[in-house]
Amino acid sequence: MPHGRRASAFDAPPGALISRPLDARVVLGRSLLDDAFLRDPYPTYRALREAGPLVWSDEFFGGAWLVTRHADVELVLRDARFSAQRTGGWLMRPADAEHPDRRAGRNALKGFQRLFSRAMIFLDAPDHARVRQAMSAAFRPADLQRLMPRIEQAVAERLAAIDARAPFDFVRALARPLPAQVIGLLMGLDDDESDSQADVVAWSDELADFIGAPAPSHVQALRAQTALLAMARYFDGLLARRRAALADGAEPRDDVIGRLLQAERDGQIRGSAELLAQCVMLLFAGHETTRHLLANGLRTLLTHPEQWRLLQRDRALLPGAVRELLRFDSPVQYTGRRVATDLELHGQTLHRGDLVVALIGAANRDPARHERPDELDITRRPAPPLAFGQGPHVCIGAALTLMEAQTVFGQVLDHWPDLLPSPTTEPRWIGNALYRGLHELPLQCSGLPASTPISAPTLPPSLTALTPDPACKLS
Fold first, then answer.
1. In the chain, N or C: fewer CB atoms in 10 Å?
2. How confident is the model at residue 460 (pLDDT cuts 50, 70, 90)?
């Protein structure tokens, strides 16, 4: 546990002052990250939140401060004194701790660090603003609206391929492959390139295994590096073909890849490594959390049949329902920041370089922010959940995620109003502390699919309007 030093204080959010650090193991009387936590983290969050505003845990990356209350999580996400640049220790600590030759261990991960650290999610100002401006051009509401018919068609085709009269796995049939297909459409991957969706999902699994490990091992880091570099080679070939076509006089394509290439030519994206980093992390983050929202959200609705019936009667509730699902069981449970300068929070000194873990899942159940926080209520008009983050790193792909979820849930309601979870199968969670998701979601219908016409969902508000709402991890 860190020792106190004098620090420059700033106004902290409301909360009880603590004279010495609270230890999570002492508060809980057990390890924080046990099997019960991975199945259902919310009782643990409640205990930590009630114990105090700031808790120390040695189970996250060798030691980190945990913030669980909404006001504190919001502060950490917004305040520049909490830095997003945190990849160095994250990648190199396993090598230092486990590799017999420290230098060799670090050298083995140089390729990983070179790309990983350049991704927008790990940049601070001014580089973050420069790269985000280039990326945001591909997420304008008008562009997403033009993509809407292709998303609807993709969902309809996948649902039509399912025989809902027999039990089926919703994760394998739709939640897992669809978001990879959609982000491929947005980025401008050609049909033959989209055939690599299975590879994309496999690569993402390795990355998620590393990123979601509170204390990743050197082996996990090496596997994630293999996946990241495979994705980089995939994009390197694609970018080379695009550049060659432009050199031959082809018109620039109006998609994410085309706009990032233009940003590179304009100097807004600086160098091939920075360009590759954005492509790789966008492909990963653009579907990893969305797939968990689709499966978790549908399971939550089906296990709250009164809420499912409300949606059946009134589809105008669908946009609010998706936001409530994000609050109730966020696909991303936490994010991290490094303290950029010594400061004082709730009477406790935090030193430069300390890691702060902002527990988004806990903040979204904070009773000081949300009434009846442990109840699912799709009719509530709450303060927006933190699932899309706050501040400069608010999720750049929030509108796309909302569109996908509204489309999927809307079409499922139209096709199978009598859909039910399989009564013989218990939910099996992936066992990842960061990404909350299901290995599988067995479902079945008690009747034949309905023939109700499918109506297009309303486009979510602009990204500016979404700002108060990190699940996407695109920022």
1. N
2. very low
